[in-house]
Specification:
By secondary structure, the chain is mainly α. The chain contains five helices and two strands; from the N terminus they run E-H-H-H-H-H-E.
């Protein structure tokens, strides 16, 4: 996949668990886990906005594009 999800990196930087993020954002643990593992096919802007608000980061801190030739 060309889009890399760095959610685990941001969680570590903020010293926050996936459970805490789930409670603060209002998204189920299973959905966050799918996103964290890079298995998600899409993410709503409202979800991305909520995650960024809780983690106090930018979308680019969580999502990265990798160009594989």
């Amino acid at each position: 996949m060309a889009i890399i999800v760095n959610l685990d990196v941001m969680l570590a930087k903020r010293k926050m668990s996936l459970t805490e993020l789930s409670e603060n954002v209002g998204i189920t643990m299973s959905n966050l886990s799918i996103l964290k593992k890079g298995k998600a096919k899409a993410i709503r802007f409202s979800t991305l906005e909520a995650i960024c608000a809780v983690l106090e980061c930018q979308p680019g801190d969580i999502l990265e594009y990798e160009n594989n030739p």
